[in-house]
Design brief:
The structure is a single chain. By secondary structure, the chain is of the alpha/beta class. Strands 1, 2, 3, 6, 11, 12, 13 and 14 form an eight-stranded mixed beta sheet that branches. Strands 4-5 form a two-stranded antiparallel sheet. A two-stranded antiparallel ribbon has the order 7-8. The protein is globular, with a radius of gyration of 26 Å.
């Protein structure tokens, strides 16, 4: 045989052999989509986490897609579910998930707990119990907690020190501090001790620290118009109108706080950076737990990670791997340090990085210490409508259109009618 021909044949066989080997050595990649509502710096942190995950998992491609604010995110998820084209996974509030569960659209994460790639009993219990409860529907965990924050009390330490007071721990101390830090010049209040917002979250801070609750044990009857709720709303109304040590605004309070218009307000632990930016170096400020009447309570806000059942088995396995990694102690610490949200795992507080960060940022330790008093919102599909009903009642009481009891009684009537449908 001609050497040239033999060489061509040998080369051809080599190409064929290599062509046959290549596909077997390259594992097929799985692509999953992750819809979220984290914009700006929060979105950049998510992108960094995705990049880090993909370094260790080159067989999985995660498309993290920002969908706008939470309202837009929910609308897009609902539209995608109606079109039977939802993402593989997404951020979602508990009441959203309750609606998804009703339509059997969710793949419960609990179904992935068993097996070598699952979670042990110890790992499951490492998630804060209150956060686990918020992810549980009908006794089964459907979601994993992700970007969570707790309610805190932000205060002007400089003003409190000038008044000879420590940060308040109780309602009585909060009223005393608000009176002492309210400034009147020429018959006009130039600085209030407290600023309030006419919404369900401010009401919740006082309702829960007074031993109250939104719904009864069945979750289908509103009880927030009991003595605890009426007393909570009356306390805010009295700060506004009787003692005149507070005023209210509809929006966020960090700008007013930074401008020295108020010495205190309630916020989320995730608002640290906004307060820091608003204050700058104008005065010393601090973070503390919500002042209580009967006992400490820290209302929880934020979303969980949900997986949709329409994804293929391969996509679901990949999504589970990503969700498990994203909520692991090391990653939840990274998320907490870079965003101000709380770590969702108890063991995260023992990691070196978390301890060093807490030592360097002592103010934020208050929000982490409040985790043992965390209280989640009711897991009912009607919760968003209930929130709006309660917020309307709070605003009517603030405007002195009705008494706190009348406002809450009317709100409970509306909520019970809603829950009865």
């Amino acid at each position: 045989m001609n050497r040239a021909i033999a060489g061509v044949i040998t080369l051809g066989l080599l190409v064929v052999l290599l062509a046959g080997v290549a596909p077997a050595s390259a594992a097929p990649k799985v692509t999953i989509t992750f819809w979220h509502g984290m914009g700006s710096a929060l979105g950049k942190t998510i992108d960094k986490l995705v990049q880090e995950f993909q370094k260790g998992n080159p067989d999985i491609i995660v498309k993290a897609e920002y969908q706008g604010n939470y309202g837009a995110l929910n609308q897009k998820i609902m539209a995608a579910l109606a079109a039977k084209k939802p993402p593989t996974m997404a951020q979602a509030y508990g009441n959203w998930v309750a609606e998804y569960v009703k339509s059997a659209a969710v793949k419960p994460v609990q179904e992935f707990f068993a097996g070598p790639d699952g979670l042990s009993k110890e790992e499951i219990e490492d998630f804060w119990p209150q956060l686990r409860a918020g992810c549980t529907f009908d006794g089964k965990m459907y979601t994993l907690p992700f970007n969570k924050s707790v309610a805190i009390y932000i205060h002007n330490l400089t003003a409190l020190k000038e008044a000879g007071l420590a940060p308040p721990s109780t309602w009585e101390e909060l009223l005393t501090a608000s009176k002492a830090t309210t400034v009147v010049k020429d018959g006009k209040i130039t600085r209030h001790g407290m600023v309030l917002r006419p919404n369900v979250d401010y009401f919740a801070n006082l309702l829960l620290t007074n031993g109250g609750r939104y719904l009864d044990e069945t979750g289908r009857k509103a009880v927030f118009n009991g003595p605890e709720g009426v007393e909570a709303l009356q306390f805010m109304v009295d700060m506004l109108h009787k003692y005149k040590v507070a005023y209210y605004i509809p929006g966020y309070a960090d700008a007013d706080f930074g401008a020295g218009k108020t010495c205190g307000y309630f916020a989320s632990s995730a608002s640290y950076s906004y307060t820091d930016k608003a204050v700058g170096d104008k005065f010393e400020w601090g973070i503390g737990p919500i002042p209580y009447k009967k006992g400490p309570a820290a209302p929880v806000a934020g979303t969980d990670l949900v997986m949709f059942g329409s994804a293929t088995p391969e996509e679901q396995e990949a999504a589970w791997k990503f969700m498990k990694w994203l909520t692991s102690p090391a990653q939840t610490v990274y998320w907490a340090i870079n965003t101000g949200y709380i770590p969702v795992r108890k063991s995260a507080l023992d990691l070196k990085e978390m301890k060093e960060w807490m030592a360097a940022n002592p103010r934020n330790a208050a929000s982490l210490n409040a985790l043992k008093f965390a209280v989640t919102d009711p897991n009912v599909a009607e919760w968003q409508d209930i929130r709006e009903i309660i917020s309307q009642a709070v605003e009517e009481a603030f405007l002195a259109k009705v008494t706190p009891k009348e406002a809450l009684d009317k709100a409970v009537e509306k909520v019970n009618a809603l829950l009865a449908k």
